[in-house]
Write a structure and sequence with these properties.
By secondary structure, this protein is of the alpha/beta class. It has helices at about 5-15, 20-30, 35-45, 55-60, 60-75, 80-85, 90-100, 120-130, 135-145, 150-160, 170-215, 230-240, 245-255, 255-270, 275-285, 295-300, 310-320, 395-410, 430-440, 455-470, 480-495, 505-515; strands at about 360, 365-370, 370-380, 390, 420, 440-445.
Length: about 525
């Protein structure tokens, strides 16, 4: 039992929440049913308060009791409907009121389950209206003062037996129409299921095609199939033809049947470039990934292997033979205007008709885990040969002066080349200036911060680093070992590395063909 204070609190909260019974029960945790809350509100509405002790007899006034019984008699004599409509009292209480105020008007029923006996003709009429659909089931049930479930129970009871003579013939026709409607609905649903299965099949096929495109021809999963070549489409179809019919695959990848069979025949033919592929692969890695397709083609031509340059490019692309490339910030030796700068005599004209006419020089840095190494070479504009170079761990005056001394020693009598450099401090110290003056060399300098004025030398540094330095692991290499590797590369560069501008010959081979010496 709940105290009067608890019941009053529940009723006040019910009024505040606009009779949201479930919300009040969830918030307070009581009472156990909506029915109890309704009875508390009915008592409060009648008397303006909740009594501490009261019986069902004192809950309602005489007027309310008479009103409830009158509603019962005027609206189908349904106890459940009367209690639900008025909101009071309980079915048992209403049954007592009917026995007291109108005992002769009450339908005969058991007091426990209130099972009412209805005439047979009333049941038949209600079922006829339900089957003919003159209104909704709820409307028909309400007009007869019964529950919707009771109406359908009558329908099952009557239709499970032989139809009596009193039933009109329209019922059989109505049931036949309902059966036809159900069969039509079943056919429609079956057609819809078949359509959905076809759509699912097409979507799965599209998904498999895109996955195979990413797996076989290394395309992005979102690739547009229209952008694929006929050969790529053929490869996709060959990979999926065991799972899907060819006709469906042709429609999906947008390729003609004749085109597919043409490409399929070509793909299944033996590879006529199998031996050439292997030879190109071996050449590429024997040369330490330094030669692109043009130089590889020149090497093959020198070996008397006649093949198109485009074929070499395609085969290298298919095998993924790509020369690694990377750019880094160059070493900067500019320390300010130490001595007056000399004019730029080269003016970006890096062409020379004979050796030892124009020399270029600069310093570049190699940073490895063991430390830093600096290279200072001389580049001859005639053929790109390196008359002299020095390698050191410090970019000091000795590095460039030693290189210049070695270069001057290689000159023949009467040679007096222009030596061009940037505005680095090494080329403005007294030692460098004295050596050039004594040997009769003409000094030339780039403009401040203008690397294109010495681009031929910068290009040499880029080739050295791309072919030798980048994309290699130098963790366990000492400074001395790296200097040896770099020196061996520069010797190879002079004697064996071929250049397109020299007719695919090395600088040494080119000079020998012209009768010059290194």
């Amino acid at each position: 039992m709940y105290s009067p204070e608890d019941r009053l609190k529940a009723v006040q909260l019910l009024i505040k929440y606009d009779f949201a019974y479930t919300t009040v029960i969830q918030e307070l945790g009581y009472p156990s049913s909506v029915k109890s809350l309704k009875s508390w509100f009915a008592e409060y509405h009648c008397h303006g308060e909740l009594h501490k002790k009261c019986s069902n007899k004192n809950f309602y006034s005489d007027h309310e009791r008479q009103n409830a019984v009158a509603y019962y008699l005027e609206h189908g004599r349904s106890i459940s409907k009367t209690c639900r409509k008025l909101g009071y009292p309980s079915r048992t209480t209403l049954d007592h009121w009917i026995n007291e105020l109108a005992p002769d008007e009450k339908k005969r029923c058991r007091s426990s389950n209130i099972v009412i006996s209805y005439p047979q003709n009333m049941k038949e009429q209600a079922v006829i209206e339900l089957c003919s659909r003159n209104g909704t089931a709820d409307t028909i049930a309400e007009s007869y003062g019964i529950q919707r479930g009771t109406l359908y129970n009558w329908k099952r009871q009557l239709l499970s037996k032989e139809v009596p003579c009193s039933m009109p013939e329209m019922k059989e026709a109505t049931l036949s129409d309902q059966k036809d409607e159900l069969l039509s609905e079943i056919e429609r649903l079956q057609a819809k299921v078949s359509e959905l299965k076809r759509d699912a099949y097409c979507l799965q096929m599209q998904k498999d095609i895109l996955e195979k495109a990413a797996e076989i021809i290394k395309k992005d999963p979102g690739i547009n199939l229209k952008n694929l070549s006929n050969r790529e489409k053929t490869a996709l179809i060959d990979a999926l033809r065991r799972k899907y019919p060819l006709s469906n695959l042709f429609l999906q990848v947008k390729i003609a049947r004749s085109t597919y069979y043409y490409e399929h025949r070509i793909l299944t033919m033996p590879d006529k470039y199998a031996d050439l592929r292997k030879h190109i692969y071996d050449l590429f890695y024997d040369l330490k990934s330094r030669y692109g397709y043009r130089r590889i083609h020149a090497v093959l031509k020198n070996e008397a292997i006649i093949v198109s340059e485009k074929v070499v490019r395609r085969l290298m692309s298919e095998m993924g033979l790509i020369v690694p490339h990377k750019t880094m910030r160059k070493y900067n030796s500019y320390k300010g205007e130490i001595t007056p700068a000399v004019p730029n005599l080269i003016e970006r004209n890096f062409h020379a008709d004979a050796p030892n006419k124009k020399w270029l020089t600069d310093i570049t840095e190699f940073s490895i885990p063991a430390g830093k190494v600096y290279l200072s070479p001389i580049v001859d504009c005639f053929d790109g040969a390196l008359p002299s170079w020095t390698i050191s761990t410090s970019p000091n005056a000795e590095l460039v002066n030693t290189m210049l001394d070695n270069g001057i020693a290689s000159l023949e009598e009467g040679d007096a080349p222009i030596i061009h450099s940037d505005r680095g401090c090494h080329y403005r110290w007294p030692g460098w200036i004295a050596r050039t003056d004594e040997a009769g060399l003409s000094r030339s300098m780039s403009r401040k911060g203008c690397s294109p004025d010495n681009s031929a030398c910068e290009g040499l540094f880029g080739r050295i680093k791309n072919e030798l330095f980048y994309f290699r692991d130098w963790k366990n290499v000492t400074i001395d070992e790296f200097i040896m590797v770099l020196n061996d590369y520069l010797i190879w560069y002079n004697e064996k590395r071929i250049k397109e501008t020299l007719g695919w010959r090395s600088p040494l081979q080119y000079r020998q063909s012209l009768g010059y010496s290194m």
